[in-house]
Structures are given as C-alpha cells and as structure tokens.
Specification:
- The chain has 105 residues and is mainly beta.
- It has one domain: Jelly Rolls (Sandwich), CATH 2.60.120.
- The protein contains no helices and eight strands.
- The strands form two sheets. It has a four-stranded antiparallel beta sheet, with no helix packed on it. A four-stranded antiparallel beta sheet has the order 2-7-4-5, with no helix packed on it.
- It is globular and about 35 Å long.
C-alpha cells in the first residue's frame, strides 16, 4: 500500500483571504493522521476545529460540532476517524496561516 500525504492550506496568511473566517470543508475519513499547523500574526487569537460525520459532499455538509479550540500557535494532532473537518478563526487573526496535513491508511 502506498501512503499518500496531503498538505492543504485552509488559510494562507494573504490579505486576499483576510475576510474569510471559516475554511472549506475537508474530507478526512480515510486518513490515518490529521495534523493542523497554525502560525498566527495576531497576539491574541483563537482557532476552532469543527468536525462532522454527516454523509454527502463537502459543500452540502451543514451539521458540525466543535471538537477543540486552539489558543496558541503550533502543531496539533487531531484524532483520526472524522469524516469532515473545517477550521474557523477569530476576527483578530486576519492574516494567520493554517495548514492541514493528512496521511492515508
């Protein structure tokens, strides 16, 4: 079996995405490892990680539960097995960078 690692940019730290507070929805159902890397340009900020096990395609997912709130920059491991994942940043962190790394089973 070939392992495939994906690096997804939820927020890129550019002003073009500075008014976007909720990321796209990412399929993580078959991933063995899910890691979030967060580098914030704001002094005080918050990153909320939400997940859903709802069936359907990314754009049609409407039911999310908050699974954790991150209040410090760094790398964080998310428990695998969730079908869909998204992140929401606070208004204070308009230029922070959020990377999602996944690795299949």
């Amino acid at each position: 079996m070939t392992n495939i690692t994906r690096h997804l940019v939820a927020f890129d730290g550019e002003s073009v995405t500075s008014s976007t507070y909720t990321s796209s929805t990412y399929l993580t159902a078959d991933m063995d490892t899910v890691t979030i890397s967060w580098q914030s340009s704001g002094a005080a900020s918050r990153l909320t990680v939400s997940a859903s096990n709802e069936e359907g395609l990314g754009a049609s997912i409407t039911t999310f539960s908050n699974i954790t709130t991150i209040t410090a920059q760094g790398n964080y491991s998310i428990v695998p097995g969730l079908r869909w994942l998204r992140v929401t940043r606070s208004a204070l962190d308009s230029l922070g960078e959020v990377l999602l790394q996944t690795k299949d089973r």
